[in-house]
Amino acid sequence: MSLGLMVLLLQQTNLSFGPVPTDLNREWLTQADYPADALKERREGPVEFELTVDPTGKPVLCRTLQSSGTASLDRTTCAAIYARVRFKPTLDDDGKPVFASITRTVKWVHPSRYHLAKKAGVPTEPVADLTVTVNRLPIPADKARVGIRVVLSDRGTQESCTVALPSARPALDKLACTNAASIPPEPIFDAAGAPVRGVRWRRIHFVAQ
């Protein structure tokens, strides 16, 4: 990545937490992608987006969940990923290719601020899809987090759940899947806007009362 631009994937990029890119060395965004208007006006900021990948591994839908405040940065985030990134097919529990949905955040940093931003670092706190309150935590709060992989029906209901990023306590891992089933149905949609069956990755955080 060029020293003139910092575009960072802030959310976890662990290969067990999301569909696997076919080219692990290929950058999702590059310096050349920085929109001219944003560059000129020194616009920057994070873009949170949801990406839907079809059973062949091709991105078919990209939706901005949290805007950077600059339309061109939001548009470019999705456009570049559409053009550049491909994934290996995501399989359900029976080994059948299905749709997949992931949420990621990228942070656009203007070249004039690159060195300051790099020195200060960028927060990588992942957003929880569900926060579960328990009487007492057996481990520190920053460790009481579980990443799960759920197979969803075309109605958005949970068919199955496996732990993708375990905590240090199997009991919390089990609770993560149990509580994830209570998340209101949220279907995955294809490019035409039709609900489809597929896999979604979710983060479950535990906190003490």
From TrEMBL:
One of its GO terms (biological process) is transmembrane transport. PROSITE patterns: TONB_CTD (PS52015). It comes from Sphingomonas guangdongensis. Its main location: membrane. One of its GO terms (cellular component) is membrane. It comes from the Bacteria. It is a single-pass membrane protein. InterPro entries: TonB/TolA_C, TonB_C. Keywords: Membrane, Transmembrane, Transmembrane helix. It holds the Pfam family TonB_C. This is TonB family C-terminal domain-containing protein. SUPFAM superfamilies: TolA/TonB C-terminal domain. Residues 19-123 form the TonB C-terminal domain. It is found in: Membrane.
